[in-house]
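Appendix C reproduces, verbatim, an entry submitted by the partner laboratory led by Prof. M.T., so that reviewers can inspect both the input and the predicted structure.
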Amino acid sequence: MSRQQLQDAWQAMRILKRFSLQQVRDAVQHTTLDSLKAFAKRLVAAKAIAEHVDHEDINYSVLNASYNPFEQPVNSGEKNKNSGRQRMWQSMRILNEFDAGQVASTADVSLSSARSYISILKKAGYIFVVKNAPRSGSLIERAGETTIYKMLKNTGPKRPIPKTKGVFDANTNKLVKFKPVTRKPVQMAPVKLGEAHDYQ
């Protein structure tokens, strides 16, 4: 396994929190169970994860999500930006249903970066809104309420790349155009002479 695949595997483990190696293999491209077993053994020795044996079933749980089994590579800003989007895409694929905060924390990017990429994927039809955050009510009533998204098009492990008119999907080798924004016309109730209406 390459360093990138190991990084993807560790990210998948952190997102799943409790997992089998088969689940991690399903989430990461071109990996083998033997490679993941060797990696898991290393993480167990470092006390980053714990092994749970139940008869013949072996599962793991994350003990130290902040553990870093790799040296941080020095990349250009563009590469960092792209790898951040790859991590976000991976998080969305594993979580399936998520908010921007979850994507930001699991992919180790800023909240604004997560919101921006989510917005792009939503425009391209890859994800949709399950539940909108409330826009009315007091701050206390809205506390903890966020917009929830769900994966609609999981085309593969490679991140969709934003372009001017859409996103390029390297999994399908196609440009997916942004959906046109349709705005509903505001309809006002007819007002008869002598009537008073409250539009607040």
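The helical segments are 3-16, 21-27, 33-45, 77-95, 100-107, 111-123, 139-142. Additional entries are available on request from the coordinating office.
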